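Name: Monovalent cation/H(+) antiporter subunit G
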Amino acid sequence: MNPVLDLALTALIGVLLIGGAFWMLTAALSMFHARDSFSRINVLSPATGLGLPMIVIGAFLQHTRTAGLDPFVLVKTLLTVLALIIVSSIASNVLARAAYLSGSPVDPRTAPQDLARAPGEGEQEPHSEER
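Structure predicted for Monovalent cation/H(+) antiporter subunit G:
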């Protein structure tokens, strides 16, 4: 392999792995500052949507750099990244809905707090002209 290309690939792998680890660490530390269950669920989004895919892609590139391109590993990597993005979105939505339906309290400092209002509360009826 060309030494310049090898150096660039090594740098890209390092950026992906360190960047992914940074997002994971940031999410883990942010969990301590989250005030309610909804905030904790929301804190995980960058880790699962950005951090883990970066780590998986970095590991794939390192494997490709050392062992060569393997189509089976490429397909597994693409499916893994796709599953991480799709499953994390759906899982956070389902977890937040379950937390809300179970009566988990919402931090009063959360604004806007549309979930705290009863349906129809604070909404105005549309003006209709009677003739």
